[in-house]
Amino acid sequence: MQIRQLTLREIHLKLLHPFETSMDRVTERRILLAELDLDGMIGWGECTAGEDPFYSPETTDTCWHILTTYLWPMLRGKSIASAAEIWDLLARVRGHNMAKAALEAAAWDAEAKLKNLPLWKLLGGTREEIPCGVSIGIKDTLEELAATVKKELDAGYQRIKLKIKPGKDVAVVHHIRNLHPRIKLSVDANSAYTLDDLQLLQQLDAFYLMMIEQPLGWDDLYNHVQLQKQLQTPICLDECIHTYEQAEAAASLGACKIINVKLGRVGGHLQVKRIHDLCQKYSIPNWCGGMLESGVGRAHNIALSTLSNFSLPGDVSASARYWHEDIISPEVTVTPQGTIKVPHAPGIGFQPRPDRIDSLTVRKLHFA
Q1: Domain with 108 in it: what CATH number?
Q2: Quick check: is 262 catalytic?
């Protein structure tokens, strides 16, 4: 299969509601879409980098630069037997996983279409329906948070994740747990704490949470090892895991009991599969985290969530939770039971909408 052409676009999508974490407050997403021609078949990928370097060192602008200046020239005209070869072709560039994943994901979509297979089957997925949870941003009041939680539970979502930060943590969790004693509940700190906050974090053990996600530094495996020894609640690592080697270190050292896998953060589907297999070996469950993706990125997340060790409800939720109108057809929907039925059409299983995408595009480059 020959890599022939690339169209790179930046689109702007306004969120239905602001999304606040311990790092940032997002109202509009700047998203890069990669449209890759592989043997005459078009595949779509999405770059999940944020607008600012708060979650990751990568941003929308750094990814545009790396994609256009370095990554595309490395792929242009190359012949590959499988999209799995993309990773090695780009290995000379260190890091920049989100930029790499945009191209790699597009190649996987195109390969699946060429083989007339749903992407999830090409990846080795095993389930035709995936369980869904939601991630709820920090709210101004407990009343507003409680109303949002109730709305999502009424919609059928199987797990509620609350974003927390210093000053909005124990009281927030206590309030929601009192209202909903039996729900699957977790929290996500996005690296907002240090080991000096041990006593506060230990208070969260009282609320029988599924996990505390990324409580300490975004690159701090060592102190997560120390923290997990002193917590009953499982730690889930997110920002710390950019590579297979970091996942192996976390598993072998006992830095966590769960690992959240994000396609962009680890560099694409090949690395997702490698980390998935490693975690399965260590009996560490996975789930798919979200990055406020458009429908293209969401479709890729659905596909990877069908892998067997993605056994916990992920952040893959309905398009309508985030967007007035998505860029794919049909939009992603969630059943009343809190699941997404996996599409059977070739590739990602959803059709990007050229008219909608063109109306949102603020810059575009075509490479032949």
Answers
A1: 3.30.390.10
A2: yes
Active-site choice (165, 168, 257, 262): 262
Judge if the upstream peptide bond of residue 352 is cis by omega within 30 degrees of 0: no
pLDDT in tens, 120-163: 999 999 999 999 999 999 999 999 999 999 999 999 999 999 99
Alpha carbon 190 to chain centroid, angstroms: 14
- Give CA 324 to chain center in angstroms: 20
> Does 193 lie in the same domain as 108?
no
Long-range contacts of 148-152 (CB under 8 A, 24+ apart): 149/176, 149/179, 149/180, 150/179
The Cα 10–Cα 293 span in angstroms is: 13
Q: How many domains are there within the chain?
A: 2
In DSSP terms, 161 is beta-bridged to 135, 186
Question: 163 catalytic, yes or no?
Answer: yes
The CATH number of residue 313's host domain is 3.20.20.120
The CA-based diameter of the chain, rounded to the nearest angstrom, is 59
Residue for token pair 């052409």: 5
Average pLDDT, the chain: 96
Alpha-carbon distance of 224 to 321, in angstroms, equals 32
Cα distances (Å, whole numbers) of residue 274 to 84, 261, 267: 11, 11, 11
Q: Which two tokens stand for residue 277?
A: 């297999």
Parent domain of 246: 121-341
Say if residue 19's pLDDT is above 90: no
E strand intervals along the chain: 3-20, 25-38, 41-47, 129-131, 133-136, 159-163, 185-188, 212-213, 235-237, 258-261, 286-288, 328-329, 339-341, 351-352, 361-367
User: If phi over 0 gives left and psi between -120 and 50 gives alpha, with beta otherwise, what is residue 338?
Assistant: left
Which of 113, 139, 163, 257 is catalytic? The answer is 163
pLDDT band at 23 (very low <50, low <70, confident <90, very high): confident
SS3 166: coil
Q: Span 291-302, mean pLDDT?
A: 97
Q: Does 347 fall in a domain? A: no
